[in-house]
Amino acid sequence: MQTKVLLHLEHISKRYQSELALKDIQMDLREGEILGFLGPSGAGKTTTIKIITGQLRQTSGEAKILGTDTTNIDESIYEKIGIVSDNSGIYAKMTVWKNLQIFANIWQVPKPRIEEVLRQVGLYEHRKKAAGKLSKGQTQRLVLARAVLHRPRILFLDEPTSGLDPATAAAIHKMLLDLRQEGMAVFLTTHNMEEATKLCDAVALLNNGEIVEFGPPRELCLKYNTKKQYRVLTGDGKEEVLTQAPDDIHRLTGYLQQDKLLSIHSCEPSLETVFLEVTGRDLNN
Ligand SMILES: Nc1ncnc2c1ncn2[C@@H]1O[C@H](COP(=O)(O)OP(=O)(O)O)[C@@H](O)[C@H]1O
Ligand SMILES: [Mg+2]
Fold it and tell me: What DSSP designation does 34 have?
């Protein structure tokens, strides 16, 4: 079955004064899909999200969100999308519950939904606390809860787990997978390749404003597995790396025949290594 395209970018470029921040970006996001936009700081991730959500205008190209041109969207679009970014806009003096309730009123979301999302993000016990007293991880959970309160069709997340503790990151990952199950589409930017590998149906590797590779994480890792190496551990405690060279194949069959093989792992590159190979640069700088 063909799923619906919710987001469509065609030849999007963006110039800030002299700097070309995005170059000819093309992509689609479909219902129930988690798409990752991966790149180091300055690659153009936030710029892309701002253009798609109508907060910034592209220099050229066309972007459509839920069928509407992004240069022509009105406020009603915000009833159908959710955005999680740095500028959280949480009201520090209001309680956690109240922070959600004011948005629930605007969006006419029934009260039980507030409780449901608070439980989902693990903040229900903290509902009476002033939002300003939450930890960084808890604040991010609240931002996420608010962004999905009205069951948006597309959720935009700009580096949602950056600098968070592993427990919060894991809670956010679980929630995103649950939301995908419900058919929500997620557009996620991150420089965390492990996160992308775990969550994303497809990733775009972004470098200097350009998509340099695109595909499912697993397929990309296999595509760049040019060395075809295997790490084996044998009964005498020896660990070695074998290739597909005739000598190595002979050794491997020998280990198998003699029942000496304790473990064998293929050494395909991680997404991080793929990024390094394609761009010549590390993701973290
Ligand atoms: N308002 C702006 N004016 C000028 N340059 C900008 C502006 N916003 C971003 N840039 C530049 O565009 C590039 C991409 O930025 P950004 O989209 O924020 O990257 P990322 O989110 O991937 O870190 C960077 O080189 C950044 O300095
Ligand atoms: Mg950014």
Answer: E
Question: Residue 179 half-sphere exposure, CB side, CA atoms within 13 Å?
Answer: 32
CA proximity to 191, closest of 60, 9, 37: 37
pLDDT reported for residue 202: 96
Q: Which of 19, 57, 85, 284 to mutate to test the pocket of ligand 1 (most atoms within 8 A of CB)?
A: 19
User: What would the pLDDT profile of 215-274 be if each residue is shown by its tens digit?
Assistant: 999 999 999 998 899 999 998 888 999 999 999 999 999 999 999 999 999 999 999 999
Contact status, residue 269 vs residue 225, Cβ threshold 8 Å: yes
16 within ligand 1 shell (Cβ under 6 A): yes
Q: Which helix (H) or strand (E) holds 47?
A: helix 45-52
**Can you tell me the mean pLDDT for 16-36?**
95
**Whole-angstrom Cα distance, residue 199 to residue 195?**
6
All residues at 6 or more sequence positions from 171 whose CB lies less than 8 Å from its CB, including other chains: 121, 122, 141
